[in-house]
From TrEMBL:
One of its GO terms (molecular function) is heptaprenyl diphosphate synthase activity. CDD domains: Trans_IPPS_HT. Keywords: Magnesium, Metal-binding, Transferase. It comes from Cellulomonas oligotrophica. One of its GO terms (biological process) is isoprenoid biosynthetic process. This is Geranylgeranyl pyrophosphate synthase. Pfam families: polyprenyl_synt. Its EC number is 2.5.1.30. Belongs to the FPP/GGPP synthase family. InterPro entries: Isoprenoid_synthase_dom_sf, Polyprenyl_synt, Polyprenyl_synt_CS.
Amino acid sequence: MTSTPALPLHDAELAERLTARLQLVEELLRDAVAHADPLADDASRHLVNAGGKRLRPLLTLLAAELGDPSRREVVDAAAVVELTHLASLYHDDVMDSAPLRRGAPSAHEVFGNSVAILTGDLLFARASNVVSGLGPDAVRIQAATFERLCLGQLHETVGPQGDQDPVEHYLQVLADKTASLIATSARFGAMFAGCHADVVHTVTRFGETIGVAFQLADDVIDLTSDGTVTGKTPGTDLREGVPTMPALLLRQRVAAGTGDPADAGIVALLDSDLSDDADLARAVAALREHEVVALTRRRAVDLARAAVDELRPLPAGPARDALVDFADALVDRAS
């Protein structure tokens, strides 16, 4: 399997260099998930074999271009963030009851919930093994990132408490559950390429901001695509009652009495039993046509612009340009 950058890069030399290094990451991923136990090996390879855009390792490699990208630690760090991401997907799909992941049946659909959860744990262990070779600072950063991933999932599961604003609560969930690992991806790339601490800090802030924008764009895509973009069934989050920004904005309008009279009917539809595919399709179609989708897209674009602004202190050149392209491409998917 040959890995190529999932995002357009205008610098041909950089694209060629990243293609070669992504292939090294892919080889390391496959070695890292291999297991002597046949069941563990089969289950661990399930999502790796399904492919994916490898956005997190790509960001690690891009950030490393600001220093010395040829260091072997950069490839190891890129594999660590993807292993961590893959591990989290096994758990997420069980909690969300998602039938598809990357266009293939989710691991829990193939192996059952218990095996899927334990396989996610195995992959976290393999990620920890690889990161241990990168030194104590990397281990601490990985542990803090893992903690935020868990907190994000926990807070999403229990929902906002007391008088906490649901939209602000959701944005914090996205920061922890999604943006934390994207920020670490950029941080590791700059760190292990030997960049100055100021550069590491800059790309970490960039990753944190673009990570939230990325998830908001996904909220839009989940409603507006046919599933070929995400590899997931459209409206899966609606069916499972998982909050997304368009639904939260709609509920906010109804609660404040500021929306269209028809909004309450859409909320009632979202709150109904969506186990039937036809009912789910009706709910997706109703929300898809509402302006809250455009508002969510606008939030994603604004955050992407804020992320690009974070890059201003970096020296001009192909690496910074590629990071700008990375930010633009993540939200352009929702256009």
